[in-house]
Amino acid sequence: MSRLMIIGCGGVASVAVHKCCxxxxxxxxxxxxxxxxxxxxxxxxxxxxxxxxxxTTAQVDADNVEELTELIRSYQPxxxxxxxxxxxxxxxxxxxxxxxxxxxDTANYEPEDTDDPQWREIYEExxxxxxxxxxxDYSWQWAYKEKYEKAGLTALLGTGFDPGVxxxxxxxxxxxxxxxxxxxxxxxxxxxxHGYPFATNFNPEINLREVSANGSYWENGHWVxxxxxxxxxxxxxxxxxxxxxxxxxxxxxESLAKNIPGVKRIRxxxxxxxxxxxxxxxxxxxxxxxxxxxxxxxxxxxxxxxxRKLLPDPATLGPRTVGKTNIGxxxxxxxxxxxxxxxxxxxxxxxxxxxxxxxxxxxxxxxVPAMIGAMMVVTGQWKxxxxxxxxxxxxxxxxEALNRWGLPWTVCEDPETVE
Length: 419
Ligand code: NDP
Description:
This protein has 419 residues and is an alpha/beta fold. It has helices at residues 11-22, 37-47, 65-75, 89-99, 117-130, 139-142, 145-151, 165-176, 204-211, 251-259, 274-285, 303-310, 350-357, 361-378, 395-404; strands at 2-7, 27-34, 54-59, 79-82, 102-105, 154-157, 180-190, 215-219, 222-226, 232-237, 241-247, 265-271, 294-296, 299-301, 324-335, 338-349, 386-389, 409-412. The strands form 3 sheets. Strands 7, 8, 9, 10, 11, 12, 15, 16 and 18 form a 9-stranded mixed sheet that branches. A 7-stranded parallel sheet has the order 3-2-1-4-5-6-17, with helices on both faces. The protein is globular. The relative contact order is 0.16. The chain binds NADPH dihydro-nicotinamide-adenine-dinucleotide phosphate (NDP). NADPH dihydro-nicotinamide-adenine-dinucleotide phosphate binds at residues 8-13, 34-36, 39, 60-63, 83-86, 88, 106-107, 160-164, 202-203, 206, 314-315, 366.
């Protein structure tokens, strides 16, 4: 029996809230707190009467540490699950420290304003030192380690699908299948079709920033950076079929490079159709992906935020998206002196997700692990003072929970590999 505060009420939060309500033995009470309270109330309205979980709602500005601290103190949750945007990670971590409550999220910190000179100075330094130019990285949140240790609190970072489930797959492979993992290829395939010429499956601003950035991978102890979409491969995904996929920088590479001992190479690939890439290139070329404000008719607007207003809300894609996702990892390494390769993956059907929780599979595959991560912390199965990535805990209870709560996985011991 526990009490969870969920911050944010978008596509991912909606799934996590549905799942907490299905799991009321663990989550007896939840609070949904977000910028737009009417969205929280509408979700509560939909679920109340169908669950034992007691739901309350609140308005909160998660950029404001004092306001957040006050709300957390007044509700007294066992943990806070951050499903707002990566921009709010640090303010929510600060508020959790102030209020003495555990913290959980699904995406690492990224600043909203990448022109902020103070942030930029640290960023430029990091680019030189680490060798990758992504706007997001773990250094900001890992820096809270000592504070969380001293406070006796747990911060669990990155419990979505990727990062999240993919990282738990790595810990599971390490524990049960390998003495030494040499390479990891993380493959994220969305074989779904929503019927729009162009839309993103989760927050457009975060999604487009990620996809239009340089790619990178980890090899022999350092980062190798590529041009955006420079490395392309084709893969025949179980239950989806052949798709083109492109190498991207992705946040779990950073933590897995640190936490999987001796790993030599980690790459991340995501599938994109040609139409998506052409739309994105065009938007980028005309400046619509820019995060720097421009003046228009006497008003300051941020192009990518304006674009977000024009694009379909990812939360509305559910009813019209058909097809499946397939996300997983190919591990190569040695066991008892012999080389081996395994592929652990989950397949998720967009329409089945919609029938269950009225969301498409991209929100579903993130919201379910968000609930599971919160469950690991509030039940004490994954609880120790400090700041941790998911692969630093025992993967077994999490893997069992994936099977139970809607994301069953398969281990293939003879997979197609990626060149
Ligand atoms: P949405 O944009 O759909 O939802 C974000 C929610 O946060 C909205 O309800 C928004 O409020 C709220 N919010 C934004 N700013 C504030 C603020 N200052 N104060 C309070 N609430 C705020 O995003 P998604 O649901 O698609 O994504 C949620 C998170 O999940 C993101 O961090 C994303 O990066 C992460 N993610 C992780 C994945 C993984 O596999 N690890 C995959 C996909 C997403 P409002 O309703 O008013 O706009």
